[in-house]
């Protein structure tokens, strides 16, 4: 399954176009390798996504072409979720 489709179906990222943009900007790694939106994802892969101030690391558990909202979280397991603190101070 394509990376951008997995991110949309699993509801990690709401829209496929946004998932494509994030991947194409170099903010997603699959198994430690920079990934494009067209990269293939398979069960057991580890995906690391850098959002604005958050890094999410997940493991792929299931692949589905479509899923209900309540089943979407069963497609992956969160390994770690870290926030990057903004260190700039405004006086």
TrEMBL record:
A biological process term (GO) from this entry: rescue of stalled ribosome
One Pfam family hit: S4
Record-linked PROSITE patterns: S4
Key words, A-Z: Protein biosynthesis, RNA-binding, rRNA-binding, tRNA-binding
Domain RNA-binding S4: 1-64
GO MF, one annotated term: ribosomal large subunit binding
CDD domains for this protein: S4
Spans through the membrane: none
Task of the protein: Key component of the ribosome quality control system (RQC), a ribosome-associated complex that mediates the extraction of incompletely synthesized nascent chains from stalled ribosomes and their subsequent degradation. RqcH recruits Ala-charged tRNA, and with RqcP directs the elongation of stalled nascent chains on 50S ribosomal subunits, leading to non-templated C-terminal alanine extensions (Ala tail). The Ala tail promotes nascent chain degradation. RqcP is associated with the translocation-like movement of the peptidyl-tRNA from the A-site into the P-site.
Subunit structure: Associates with stalled 50S ribosomal subunits. Binds to RqcH, 23S rRNA and the P-site tRNA. Does not require RqcH for association with 50S subunits.
Family: Belongs to the RqcP family.
Entry protein name: RQC P-site tRNA stabilizing factor
Organism: Enterococcus rivorum
Gene designation per UniProt: rqcP
């Amino acid at each position: 399954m394509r990376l951008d489709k997995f991110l949309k179906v699993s509801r990690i990222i709401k829209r496929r176009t946004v998932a494509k943009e994030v991947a194409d900007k170099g903010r997603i790694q699959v198994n430690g390798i920079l990934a494009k939106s067209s990269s293939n994802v398979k069960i057991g892969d580890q995906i690391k996504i850098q959002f604005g101030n958050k890094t999410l690391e997940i493991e792929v558990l299931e692949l589905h072409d479509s899923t209900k909202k309540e089943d979407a979280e069963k497609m992956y397991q969160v390994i770690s979720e870290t926030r990057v603190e903004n260190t700039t101070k405004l006086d």
